[in-house]
Amino acid sequence: MRPTRRRFLAIAAGFAATPAMAQRHSWRGRAFGAEIAIVLQGSRAQTGPALQAAQRVIAEVEAMFSLYQPSDLVRLNRAGWLVPAPRFLALMQAADRAHRLTGGLFDPTVQPLWSALSRGEDPAAAAALIGWDRLRFSAEDIRLAPGQALTFNGIAQGFATDLVAEALAAQGVDRTLINIGEFRAGGGPYRLGLADPLHGALGAISLSDGAVATSSPLATPLGETGHILHPRARPLWSSVTVEAETAVLADALSTALVLAPLEQVREVRRAVGVRRVLLVDPAGDLTSL
Question: Under 8 Å CB-to-CB from 82, ≥6 apart: which residues?
Answer without folding.
Answer: 72, 75, 76, 88, 141, 142
